[in-house]
Design goal:
heterodimer, A: about 700 residues, mainly alpha, Cytochrome Bc1 Complex, Chain C, two-stranded antiparallel ribbon, two-stranded antiparallel sheet, about 65% helix, about 0% strand, B: about 140 residues, alpha+beta, Rieske Iron-sulfur Protein, 2 domains, six-stranded antiparallel sheet, four-stranded antiparallel sheet, 10 strands, about 20% helix, elongated
Amino acid sequence: MSWLDERIGGAALRELIREKTVPVHRHTIWYYFGGMTLFLFSIQVVTGILLLLYYRPTAESAFESVQFVMAEVQFGWLIRSLHSWSANLMILTLFIHMASVYLTRSYTRPREVTWITGVGLLVLVLGFGFSGYLLPWNKLAFFATQVGTQIVGSVPVAGTFFLRFLRGGDNVTGATLTRFYGFHVAVLPALTTALLMVHVLLVQFHGMSTPADYKAGRKMPFFPNFLLRDAVGWLVALGVLAGLAAIFPWELGEKADPFASAPKGIRPEWFFMWMFQTLKIVPAHIWVFEGERVAILGFGVLLLVIAAVPLLKVENRILTILGWVLLLYVFFMTLSGYIETPVFAAGPEDFETDIHNQRGITCVDCHGDNPQPRKTEIARMCAKCHADLNYMRQFNPQMRVDQYSEYQTSVHGMRNANGDENVATCTSCHSVHDIRSVKDPKSPVYRTQIAATCAKCHADSTRMAPYKIRTDQFAKYSKSVHAAALLERHDLGAPTCNDCHGNHGARPPGLESVAGVCAQCHRQEKDLFGKSPHAEAFNQLGLAGCVVCHENHEIKKTDDRMLSAQGDGICAACHSDSGSAAKIQTMQLSILNLRLQIDRTSEVLGRAERAGMEVSKSRFDLTQAAAELVKARVNVHSFNPDKMKEVTNPAMTVVAGVHKAADGALEELGFRRRGLGYALIGIGIMIVALVLKIREIESAEKKF
Amino acid sequence: MLRRYFVNGLLGSGMLATAAAIFYPILKFVIPPEAAESAVMSVAVGKPEALQPNTGTIFKFGGEPGLLVRTAEGDLRAFSARCTHLNCTVQYDPAAKNIVCACHGGQFDLNGKNVGGPPPKPLTAYSVNVRGDEIVVSRI
């Protein structure tokens, strides 16, 4: 021991520790926050090094490696959650430490440099937070980094340089991730270690600062009295962290996709929120400067002012008031960010209105010397250009030129050619002088508008009366599954009138072509139906395929209850014999059993997911089983119970496996909670023992 | 004296319990798990002879489903199995010799091109190689 002492100066060190004292007064509590921040920083170092064993810093595998840590590595969930929670708590304790030093004016002479190194450490810790947020490469972090680096890009003069320097290019990509990884695990730790050493050494050198009204004399030895009290605080922090990690594991989210739209609720980490909110309220222009740039410059100036506070010649009372104003501002702006979630959404597209006007076509080009063409002349008038391949090619080489010839074959066109001015012609659907591109959502022939456009005439009973055509098609279509998909969910792949009836050559599909029309999308169903016993029977009875069971315009969302010869079942209309009813029931039960098992398993899996368990593999398998359920429903059209079971039986086996895995995840959750309980008991015993030890030491000191 | 022994004993056992609570998870963490890491850039999807001509199979690629098809002619092709319409899982249809989506009837040819139904764009294609006796699918 003495050999070692001689070489490392152990005796001097012991002497230093023995002599070090901590002043005791009403503000002593604030001394603990510096040590607490240091303790949380050491947790960051340990858990960070452990995470490095598995983490891979590339866009392709970063997310998967964190997922692997959370799902496969023993206690991986704990280490990662500790790292994330401890990072946030560390920033919180750092803010408290800085605020207490500022408000107790502990930065004054001779501790100016200690304060400046502290401000430097704050910047580095925020750098850790910013760079670490991106490392799991999930959607939320990806877009938050995009916004964050964009803000840095607004720094006057050097903004573009900083933006490219941080991103490793013009956009947030895998290069940004690699960079942030480098900053997070090498650059920032090196700088922090150096600055932290200076900071701690200066604290030792100058001793603890005391308030102006402190009466010299009351103090306690640093070792063991203060250090043991520190240890109690650290153990409490450890317990809180373990609890947070076990009960609220840090979620992973979805993998970042640079081409996806920004998810709702994207926001920066809480410690950047006040700056983010400030940028939102800053006006677009302040005098002749861009508001955002001024605000960013303001943040920079604020940081410099905070760092230079010990050197400023300003009255103490004013500094204290300014400090409180800043603290309250930061607090309320942070709060406002969580009350009102910022959402980045793309604005609506705004297109030019008339496409002809846009392309330089004037009145005369269409009308010539006919200012008021008759309705029977319009189609021919449009066809002057729209049926001319060479003319249309100059605007769009892919544009069709067969609309007029198709129109002539349609019911509308044929009646129009016979002089009927009531039937639809080009302008009836495309409008007269406000013709827009078909891709323009405001165009009356845009996919979501077509049904309403057709209904202008086809829902008008007076107009349809001479033709003896029903007028309930639009009302029925509006209640259909197709309309719900197209008009409510804006699924542009869902069919509307012209998908079944044609557009320019519009006419109702004949009896023999109904199945062909539906098969444009439902081909599998048509193939299965064609091979089923129903195909021949329907032919003999003159029934029009699909519409017999599913209707034509009011096509309801299919329901497993439809497959029944009883009650609401649609099979009941034709099948009343017990043999058919049994077959139908077998098919229905295959589907219902699978659905029931999927629902039950999904509920158990959902509970595990909500508790923060990583069960993505089981969710994947369950999704595949759900895809098999869809396949089984399609297979109904074979009307063969054995063919159904070929699909449902293997899917049931998969679902059973997923259920077992979900139960296992819930058991693991129980294990975590029990583990947390044991760990807290251990920590609790330690805290009680430390408190007793402190009392024992202090009562012994009083006796002397 | 007794009190001091008690406090020291309590302190010692508390320290042991806390150390165990800290080091047990760390030791467990550093032991590599049995499961292999999930593949993201390429994945082995089985032996070539296991996939008969004119059949398809779903495999897990990262967190997403992939579809491996052996055509009637014996070629191997792989695509993302996420339908470009509403993300349902697509499947190989041996009767029609193409790829279909059971949800809304989307159809894709064996190059992944959308040829029928509502899907707005082709399936993402992957490259397929046979290395030794294993089929390896990679992102292009």
